[in-house]
Amino acid sequence: MELKDQLATINNRLKSALVGVAICQISKRLYLRATLPPKPNSTKTKPHQQWISIGVYASEDGFKRAEAEAYKLGGLIACKEFKWELYLKSPGDSSVKYVKDWIDKFEKFYFQTHQRNHQTETTWKIDYFRVFNKLEQWEVLNSGKILDLVKSTRPDTKTRKRTCMALSALARFAKIEINLKPYAGRYNPKKVAPRDLPDDAIISQHFYQIEDEAWRWVYGMLATYGLRNHEVFRLDFKALARGDYIVNVGENSKTGARRVWPCFPEWFEQFNLQKIILPQVNLDRSNAEVGHAVTVWFHRHIPFQPYNLRHCWAVRTLEFGLDISLASQQMGHSAQVHSELYHHWISERHHQRAFELMMHRSDRPTVPIVLGYSKDVKLL
Q1: 20 to 30 A from 103, CA-CA: which of 86, 202, 203, 299?
Q2: Mean pLDDT of the 314-342 span
Q3: Model's pTM, two decimal places?
């Protein structure tokens, strides 16, 4: 008798005996399935179908052990003596396949292969844990649970793409075979609706209207250098205080160390950016949390988002004619990302301004003169 037939026979016996427990095979291992009370830390309040790992393989001996465990579990349920403490194993047990255990193991592996700092902690929290936390923590991790979470996100969105990326990494780590590439979709930042960016006069006006000196300095730095929210707190302040108008972003920023030039350079002096005054923000937190403090302050005091200042810096560099490859390096991303993110934000006035600058260049090519023809194109 084949293994699948043996499993069906055992489950029929359990059903006839009204045990209330079934045996399931996932990959090469066997699990018990029954209606059980919520696991510890679960958000659910009522009993529901759940899985229990018993740490045995699908084999002749494994089936015997599984059937015995099924009767044992059924007896505990019938006598109302079931407790999860009897079945939840420690995360170090290699047979455990609960979601929470795999997440804990993956987090440990991630920081064993990545230096722990503000940058990697933000990546872990935003790109991985925020996705993993949507899984039922005390369910058995399998391809079905992974695919269900992917399908719960809207197709062709940043959320769907990030979910597929994170869960693919977790599945590889847990040696679960699943291909999520067909579900990742066609999300592209170019499809994001263009923002209504403030012009430079409005940006300057708001700077002088900010009463708090520290937040005025933060605003000025974001406007002048196009930094990410958290990066204004991750700079080489000593060089800046000496009057070096080229800022050095630290290694613990989102995309590592880099140098950024001011655009406009006049704002460095007009906004008195050499005089560093930091607001009271807890800097011993992740980049995401530090950046969120900036977002909250802007929401309360400025009629546009802090990232709009970053977008304005990018568009301004295009108006000035800065090469895309240089601008992208200063912003901390690739030239492809830079093009996708910002080219579709250039309005007609930006094109006109770039055209005027190009035409007024003293070294621009001159129009050819063809001898023997007049201006009305008639032969002389």
Answers
A1: 86
A2: 85
A3: 0.58
